[in-house]
């Protein structure tokens, strides 16, 4: 029968209303449709039955206080479903449709049967599954010819109801096939739209993925989850967010398992590890996909999560953050933008949790990895204070038997978790922040926890080893910084004792032997230190600081040629051997260690072959410096969380820009300006007329001239040396937009980057001063002064700059100006041993014995306790004042120190902690 134009318009609008679930319009549309099409009674009553079912479901959920949030706890074995309705509430509508079922066209009858099946499935009738099967028995799903419009939606509904029925009957494989058919239909017909289609598609895709997980087919589940996700991008933003959050939770876990399974898969090997579409299961692709899903999970979960009440724990947020952290460890921490994105994600979690120790723990480790050490210290203190209060209020010893899932739900920290934070805190204090007292406190508390509560833990050996190492490092730092000489031996003895305990626990760990060797070297126990460092190298032949320390130990025994040979051997073991690699295959820290080793090699070369021969190695150091302090490849670029097509609610995509890192410290006023104004020595730093100021035999950008200008030079006043490569990189490298990034207005540089810039400045100063020292010994005073000018421009607050300037003027017999330079150095670093010694020597030479004794005793009691020169001049002071016994002791001690003095300071050349 051909419909009239009016009937066709009404049918089109009626079907559109059904597709949009506009139930309020159904009665009027049904009346008008039947009026203009007598054969439309089946379609009209089908719609009225849909309306009755929907209204009954809404009323039932309200009566039972059921909400979609129940889906947040879904597992593959247990999926939350809407409560069944009382069959009596829709019985009248069912009977009306059944009575007229035979009066409509065959097409309307088939689709009406799907509606009846959907109504039967929604009820709590005992025979509901049998009735569903009865209604669908004569219907081909999917049909041979796919319909369009609302009839397409009814096909998806029929397949979904069929699948859910089979699922309840325990016929899981058949149910999955039905759900997959919905997936195929939807993907093959992207132009079909509608709220009801979204609803049935979501049901089918959600249950398909979960059932595949129940069958332990993770790859098939991932494929279903991917289809769900691609469809979800087209759904309204607030559509079934609880189910989305639940699905993304399981999706993330499935991706993690896939990453573990295919982490060793080599795409170029040709191995068929994945049956199809292998590129989607490569580790790199999986890592990016995990980052995306984490973001969507966070988005969905936070949309349905509120700040907890006093008696609540937002354990779902805790679980999510833990999964994100674990996945980041699994896939690698990525670049700086990724690390920042992780920190920001954890900070956001604090807005949905209240005083969560777990969140604080994650935040602490993330901040340390990011290099924001000042914030990490505050977080560490907050965490430890919280744990101390918790222990006072309630003992958690009895909770050690809890599983990790139970701990997450209760937000309870295990003794292992607490101990790992203490150990990492100790490492942070001693390695990055230089606070030995705090490091010692953390290490001791960690050791107490291990001995009392973790003796049976599988990682007890590693925990003890680390705790003892950092305890030893803290003792060693305290001893080095001690101003009371009577305390120093005891602290050094404790440091050695702790390291011996660490080595006894894990003798195969090379770093324990290395740290022991350094500690013994600092104590001038050269023989034992040499044995320890050789043991370290036998366990790890690529460890550059161990090779470096061995070279220094040989130099302390005045075996300079052997030390130089060791340098050559050790440098070849490094990935930073520029003759073999591109210098970027290793980390920044290894690069700095390599440069420090090359610097020692240059000093040894100078010692053996003389100052003139030292210029060429020094020239190469400047080129190496620019490569070492260039930005690390993984420190730049966008975060892998920066997915442009992801829609973020309530967050604008804002480009994050880092603040410019400052090269060098603020310039201090030069004391030499006073000398210039007095008119004395104003020619010392000026180049002869017509001479080129860039005449050094080492490569350099140009010469700054703050020292020269303070003496009277004006030609080079405006010239500036470019910032070190590290500083320049921090100043100009953009931070990419991170998917998980909040839009802060200012992005301050991390503590790590600031400290690295400071190290870069210090190394550059050292290189210029090394050149200055070489030129001074060659009698090239003008070039020496220019090198000092460059060093002063990099960091005018570095005491070594002014000390070297003093040596330069002393070499020119200008003792007054030299004394002024030493005084400037001491104003910047009151305990600078070399400067104190020079000033003490000056007092001795001028007959001011009391002044000389005072400053030299201060030196030998504090940081200059191992300065042979300081002890020598102190002995001469005692000799001049007729205290021969004291003089003899000092002179013998000076001789002993000189006989074991390395070519460069042990602790300034190699790191105390690995």
Report on the architecture of this protein.
- The chain is mostly helical and 914 residues long.
- Among the domains are: 5-234, Serine Threonine Protein Phosphatase 5, Tetratricopeptide repeat; 641-821, no CATH class; 830-914, Serine Threonine Protein Phosphatase 5, Tetratricopeptide repeat (Alpha Horseshoe).
- Helix 34 runs antiparallel to helix 35.
- It contains 39 helices and no strands.
- The chain is elongated, with a radius of gyration of 38 Å.
- This is TPR-like protein.
At the first level of CATH, the class of the domain at 5-234 is: Mainly Alpha
Bin the helical content.
Answer: 55-70%
Uncertain regions: pLDDT < 50 for 5+ in a row?
265-276, 579-585, 642-745
Broad structural category: mainly alpha
- Overall residue-averaged pLDDT value: 85
Please describe the biggest sheet, giving its number of strands, its sense, and whether it closes into a barrel.
none
CATH architectural type of the domain at 5-234: Alpha Horseshoe
Shape: elongated
Radius of gyration: 38 Å
Number of strands: 0
Number of helical stretches of at least 4 residues: 39
Estimate the strand proportion.
under 5%
Quote the CATH topology of the domain at 5-234.
Answer: Serine Threonine Protein Phosphatase 5, Tetratricopeptide repeat
Keywords: TPR repeat
TPR repeats: 799-832
Protein name: TPR-like protein
Biased composition (Polar residues): 673-696
